[in-house]
Amino acid sequence: MRSLLMKNPVAIGASWIGLYLLLTVLPLLILLLYPPTPNDVRSFWTEFSVALGFLGLAMMALQFALTARINRIEASYGIDLILQFHRYISLAAFVFIILHPLILLVIRTEETLQLLSFFQAPWRARFAVIGTLALIILVVTSIWRQQLNIQYENWRILHGIMAVLAIGFGLAHALGVSYYLSLFWKVVLWSGIAVFALWLLVYVRLVKPYFMQKKPYLVETVVPQRGGVWNLVLRPRGHEGLRFQPGQFAWITLEISPFRMREHPFSFASSAEKPDRIEFGIKALGDFTKTIKDVKPGTKAFLDGPYGVFTSDRYENTAGFVMIAGGIGITPIMSMLLTLAERNDERPMTLIYSSKKWEDITYREEIEALKNRLDLTVIHVLREPPDNWSGESGYVDKELLSRYIPKRPATRNYFICAAPKMMDQVERALHELEVPVTHVHMEHYNLV
Question: Which of 162, 229, 280, 330 places its Cα 20 to 30 Å from the Cα of 22?
């Protein structure tokens, strides 16, 4: 699969999109086979609202596949892009499902209002109300999780429960109405979609943690680095370790069972050539990351991964690399540099590394040492340089990049990992410098 992706990743990515669209629309189209013969003629808007409801229900069911971290899908896009797609598609499905009763309310006001009267309405209408309320809670708590002060772990549990309720009660409503699901095979088809979604949830919450528990890791040490970063060093216990590509990341569960769903994504900071000693670079920013320095040697850990397409391994035929990092964004790039050094890679590489102060440069000494093992040019860019600083200062902009990227920019692949504002600025600058968009690869900090 990896070689196929390297040969034609665009075609593979397009095929997944085509499959998603097919699976979204196909269940709705199948409902049109052997359509019912109603005693009364239903209006266009009634049929349109019903179509929106079924389409939204199918889209909701497919969200379980998007969040199941299926390696073959993730390898085509990267999990950050998939999660962004998941967010937008969920909002689209939410709009479709909400429009379903709203349209009926406009064209059949009195009848629809009676169905919305929860205690007097038939059970199929009650199921619709419960499913819709679950969907509203799901969307509201997802968009405004931080404002509502909901902890991530609690939100994940609530998110899963509300998703199951929305799908389950939505399908029960459709079966109760039975207008388009009067035939047994149609009931089996839509029930199968719901069972598939439920299986994906079981896989993520139970099956995957079970296999993770079979391959534990132990914390060997926690190493302090410059810039408030700590390297969490893990050793596999009873197995050979995790094979990953440099620049990828994994979800880490520390101290507790992987069934608890308290996991956090971090980039590998070590060489992919040494799976028996895995390191993660973690900056103390939030409640969890601030506790990393206190993790004791011997603490049990579990890994779910590797994930990500931000890796130099996908571009083995390129003439060289330009790597642009800001702050903790150096972590996946450090993994690439260490791996390339282990492999005695002779291609030219340029690292443009933006930091606040000279003392804040994470892995500063390690990067300097890599210059002896690689054809590596390092440009430090300081926002607050010392008085005797003769290097670059300020921000990584078009003018600075033009001084260091090759005269023929299409001969390199460019990796950017930094804060969103810096990434947007660098991406625009590279575009203006005529770097092909297919040669620019970005990794985002926040997945949740």
Answer: 162
